[in-house]
Description:
This protein is α+β, with helices and mostly antiparallel strands. The chain contains seven helices and eight strands. A hairpin with a 3-residue loop joins strand 7 (about 180) and strand 8 (about 185-190).
Amino acid sequence: MTETPLTHMPETRTTIVCETAENSKLARCETKLREELAACSADLHALGFAPGTSGNVSVRLDGSRVLATPTGCSKRVVGPDDLVVVDMDGHQLAGTRHVTSEIDMHLAIYKARPDVEAVVHAHPVFATGFASSGLALDQPLCSEVVMTLGTIPLAPYATTGTCEVRQTLAPYLQHHDAVLLANHGAVTYGDSLMDALMKMETVEHFAQICLVVRQLGGGATLEGKHLTDLLQARAAYLQKAGRRVHWGNGSNGTSAGPQLTAQMR
Length: 265
């Protein structure tokens, strides 16, 4: 009996080796992201933005999976092994704990903004104070904030953990990287965990500035040539960084000050 030559064996071995190497690379990537997400959660707690078990953080693993913090867990002590993996419909794929009850908000942001890699939701005191007073952070008072975030709108109240949150956020996601949630807190998102966290810091810092301005009797907003020059500088900066900037009139057409809406891509 004549045996058939095994002419395809070398190619099969090569394929197996490549798949093994790719799987190893993905595993290392997930391990790194788990460590970064746990560190980000600890920073969020240390900043005073996530007291008790409040707040949640997530990061994309790939096009179909998201790594997120679990529900009912202090961000001070959450570790890499406590994190859970869900698909883009919120179905849990891995993890011994239950995923945060606000995962739908995170997934809505990822679906609306393919450029976003990480989402941070928290309850910083001053920003949440403005959100609970029905006040957006939408006046161009500080050049730093105009350069980094544009305006920070206020999304209408929605019951936490429900699809209502996704619906109230939808009008703001395309043109903003930070949104206040009425009577709730704030959410920020960016191209990395650090980027999303720094945006949350900026939101809280600006909220403190706005409060001081109000206590002093009102501020002098940037306008005219000063504002135009600042927006041009921002556009040049984003172009240099390979991002696209969009200036619009705001999602609701009204504001206490000039509307600056930025979409960084």
